[in-house]
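Subject: for your reference before the review

Hello V.,

The reviewers asked for a structural picture of the protein, and I figured it would be easier to keep everything in one thread rather than splitting it across files. Below is the amino acid sequence we used in the manuscript, unchanged from the supplementary table.
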Amino acid sequence: MKLIRSKGGDRLLSMQEPKKPQLYRDLFPYSSICRTDFDDVLLPPRPAEQMRITDTTFRDGQQARPPYTVNQVARIFDFLHRLGGKTGLITASEFFLYSVRDRKCVDVCRARGYRFPRVTSWIRATKEDLQLARDMEFDETGMLTSVSDYHIFLKLGKTRQQAMDMYVDLARQALEWGIIPRCHFEDVTRADIYGFCLPLAQRLMELSQQSGMPVKIRLCDTMGYGVPYPGAALPRSVQRIVRAFTDEAGVPGEWLEWHGHNDFHKVLVNGVTAWLYGCGAVNSTLFGFGERTGNTPLEALVIEYISLTGDDAAADTTVLSEMAEYFEKELNYRIPFNYPFVGRDFNATSAGVHADGLTKNEEIYNIFDTERILGRPVPIIVTDKTGRSGVAYWINTNLHLSDDRKITKKHPAVGQIYDAILAVYEETGRTTHFSYDEMNALVQRYMPELYSSDFDRMKQLAGELAANLILRLAKNTEMLGFDKKACARLDNFSREYPFIQYLYLTDDKGSLKCATITDPAYRERYEALPIGFDFSQREWFTVPMRTGDLHIMDVYQSQFTEKLIITVSCAVTDADDRIVGVLGADIQLEQLLKRAEALKQEAASREDNDDADGAHDVA
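And here is what came back from the structure prediction:
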């Protein structure tokens, strides 16, 4: 067996130009699972001098889900900064540039003024796209430079020489414009490393020397074919690929980055292997979002970095729990319950530990102090040995009850729940623990007051959707005149949203100035509310006048239409923020909820515009 310790980059590597594409059919037969070849070449680890993490949540990660709104991107970018940007561990985050929303996201994140993560871009290998990056004043951009013959011959329809010339020309143009090119060597684990990749890398390093600027290279394991095994052969060996670029092509480790996919469940170990063999950065996404099977999970890299370096101060790991909660509550993403570090049950023990002794026994079953490191307690698994304390602990922990709502083992319902658990074990001879769903059902049965009903959630959604509409209408300057223009605006708005059964505007004394009735069938009934009618004692009027804020009333039955409605009102203010009136709307609940998804999309689109307009006010 050979031990390779070479270091250089002085040897000129020549590109090979085959007449037919090199598809490595012995390794990638397509009709069978890919093969792993070994050639007994062993490399000692040589970690990158400074291991860093880069992020592609808003680029590759966004290809696996509906697009984020501008506001959501800003919130996630804040999380990245708090997690590892403050220390420089998370160095950069890349963005698309093609849509209006993409460019607004860039503006909002730049306006934060963070040193890290740096905002970088991603483009296709065209000068038109490069001009986009230049117009937006980027000093670094990723560029798609596919390197396998699968892409060069079968997708691009080019020879290797033509592909190389195209990539080098684009990198040269970027350098001339003062932009650091980050060349994404797409599909590198199916590429001819010595026959194309390294000669291309050497050409790029020559450009770097001539310009005095870095030329970075991202090694993209597009199909997840990379393997971390000692002695594995090219082109699948992560170790060999990284060291070939640093030792043979002379690419500095700090300019080299690994980007993996999880098609074969190796995405994390491959990324860490790249670190250990000299690759300066590993590209990642939050929770592994990415096309097909996803990318290297950023949060896993953070934990692995601390494990490798012992640098506990490199990241604020408690942010991970906050991010997970945000993804579940705000983005409606269900994180798998057993997902490491942030899944609901990832550190739950089924060993029957009593809650009273949990502190004493926690270290036996918990991977580390999750309360201190992740800001989350140890969940308890309930069995017949758990006791009333365990039931109370489960309820407080899993329902996230605040201190003033937490229950104790003395609560009568806790005893009823535990008795029901014991009965199951006694009657059935059960030996397994109670699942989350089973416990949840028991708690709902005996303590329903701790839960929001479907109707409660429906009311909350309706209120949020209605509030978005009314607040938007109230900002219209035509409301300030209380004249024909204001009345026309109400009419047009109610026609656009016919689930609004009654829309009305008063002055600051509560006197009705304008009103519109959506359904003519009820017009006669509303004649009891003529122009000038005094609403000054109504809740929907008095609360916005007192607070200046939006007010949402509980669901009730309309006396005019007998439909379930929700009343939303807000203050109308002038340019000096003085309250001059109140805008109110009675909205039919059922009809509103039928359009819920469309209204969410509309709100997100308008939110993007609002956020972009205020980009420089949020830093």
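For the response letter, the relevant points are probably these. The first strand starts at residue 2 and ends at 3. The first helix runs from residue 70 to 85.

Happy to draft the paragraph if you're swamped.

O.
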